Amino acid sequence: MSKAYQQPNEADRSKFLEQLGSDRVRWDAEAIHSAASDMTEDLVFLPSLVVFPETTEEVSQIVRHCYLRAIPLTVRGAGTGLSGGALPVEGGLVLSTARMNAQPKIDEANMQVFVQPGVITQVLQSCVEEKGLFYPPDPSSRGSSFIGGNLAESSGGPRAVKYGVTKDYVLNLEVVLADGRIMETGARVLKNATGYNLTQLMIGSEGTLAIITGITLRLIPLPTLRWTFLVPFQNPNQAVSAVAHVFKAGLTPSAMEFMERDAIAYTLAKRPDLAFPEAELAQAYLLVELDGFDEDELQRQTDRLIPVLEGFEPNEIWMATTAAETEGLWKVRRSIGEAVKSHSIYKEQDTVVPRFFLPELLAYVKELGAEFGFESVCYGHAGDGNLHVNILRGKLSEQAWEQELPIAIRKLFKKVKELGGTLSGEHGIGWVQKNYMDLVCSPAQLEMMRGIKSVFDPKNILNPGKIFPDAK
Ligand SMILES: Cc1cc2nc3c(=O)[nH]c(=O)nc-3n(C[C@H](O)[C@H](O)[C@H](O)COP(=O)(O)OP(=O)(O)OC[C@H]3O[C@@H](n4cnc5c(N)ncnc54)[C@H](O)[C@@H]3O)c2cc1C
User: Fold this and answer.
1) Distance of CA 312 from the midpoint of ligand 1 (Å)
2) Which domain-ending residue is among 164, 195, 221?
3) Per-position DSSP letters for 256-294, written without gaps between them
């Protein structure tokens, strides 16, 4: 840990206890350990203290105290992050937003919602859907991730392909700055040309610039129809090749997910309660969904979609005919991440390339696997060119995992860059990808980013150790 920081001492604890009460300031083993890791690999970093504010004013006072004492402060949402963003790598204090979860306030007339950062994404979605409104961003972790974490990682999900990612729905934010001041970043309007766009600067900033305490989101009408297709392929390359052609045909599915055979096999093994239409698994699948309000229009889209897919030699295309069948398919898709991760220690790369280059990317992943001796399971948001490459530890030696694999990952990211892509489509940089940043960001880009960080956080107390590559 860096000597530049103070770790919280007894006087700090007393200060927070006085402010928040004993149930919201914790340093017992259970609290420390549950704030020490997220869903990223098997990484563990222990904080000294965990606090649970409920209001913006409380957050402001906590941050102000950390600023004066130079205590490192890491904000934690639900801890489902996959780039180690919530890991307190410099110890110090973890500020959990778990209690900042008041009932969302819906403004139906303006189609907006105001929400605190600790509200679970799916809870927010259900709330607005009761009013016929729709908040589309749907990370597969939406049953547990918090909306504040979604903003801080600029999260996507299957529906991003038609509806965009979290950033496309954020109108205005209330944030607490590193010295404890409370600031609004914009206004709750659909257009805003008033100086720099501080709202968007916060999105994807991974808790390194400020703490998001209040969020105004725009909403859209909830589509009434969803038609879902499962398309099996014997050749995974054909599956990913089909993707760009669907869009070229003028179609915009509301989801277009790719899943390799093993991704489904591990999921069905871990979750025997889930139903899948095929007993004999194909080598890869596309899960394609069309949505809208008009049955005739969806039929016309289907009539154009099927011939495009058939051009890539799928097995028989299966269409869900009931809501339960649709939900069943999505349950399998949403369970893949957890199933693959529980199968073996893993490293996940959130690669993203222009979608026409997906076949080249997939082929290169397999080539690298053969060269370095690793097994990989790929799945993800193919419609966005976003392929999650899960490299499994399996029987790899310590030497191969720790020393040789980073070389393979560097090669992978070089290829991604060559194809016009980048390191992360939606999981962020955090702790585990920061040392690859030089591959995709020029020195000038990194200098601008560091400059922004130092303006917002001059003492570098907010989530230190993230995003920027270690000095070499
Ligand atoms: C099984 C599984 C499936 C997933 N599927 C997807 C997917 O489809 N799409 C996708 O995009 N991601 C996905 N993820 C990744 C993850 O769920 C998202 O990154 C999510 O947005 C993280 O939210 P969280 O509340 O868990 O944040 P955390 O992990 O707690 O924190 C993430 C980062 O946000 C910062 N942060 C949290 N709250 C705030 C705040 N209020 N203010 C400032 N900074 C804050 C933290 O400091 C940290 O840097 C998946 C993860 C898992 C485990």
Assistant:
1) 35
2) 221
3) EEEEEHHHHHHHHHH-TTS--S-SS--SEEEEEEEEES-
Of 190, 221, 252, which residue is a domain's last? 221
363 and 304 housed in the same domain: no
Owner of token pair 């693959």: 340
Question: How many CB atoms within 10 Å of residue 225?
Answer: 12
CA angle (361, 362, 367) in 5-degree steps: 95
In the block, tokens 């040309």 appear at: 193
Q: What is the pLDDT of residues 280-304, one digit of tens each?
A: 999 999 999 999 999 999 999 999 9
Residues touching ligand 1 (Cβ under 6 Å) are: 38-39, 74-82, 85-86, 97, 117, 139-141, 145-146, 148-150, 152-153, 155-157, 206-207, 211-212, 337-338, 426-427, 430, 463
Identify the CA nearest to 95 among candidates 178, 202, 188, 3: 178
At 76, is the secondary structure helix, strand, or coil?
strand
Distance from the CA of 139 to the center of ligand 1, in angstroms?
Answer: 9
Choosing from 153, 165, 332, 429 the residue with most ligand 1 atoms within 8 A of its CB, the one to mutate for a pocket test is 153
Say yes or no: 405 and 450 in one domain: yes
Cα(397) to centroid(ligand 1), Å: 30
Here the CATH number for the domain that contains residue 167 is 3.30.465.10
Paired tokens of 71: 């205590």
Specify the pTM.
Answer: 0.96
HSE of 184 in the Cβ direction (CA atoms, 13 Å)? Answer: 9
- The three-class DSSP label of residue 330 is helix
Q: What distance in angstroms lies between residue 189's CA and the mean position of ligand 1's atoms?
A: 26
Give tens-digit pLDDT for 96-133: 999 999 999 999 999 999 999 999 999 999 999 999 99
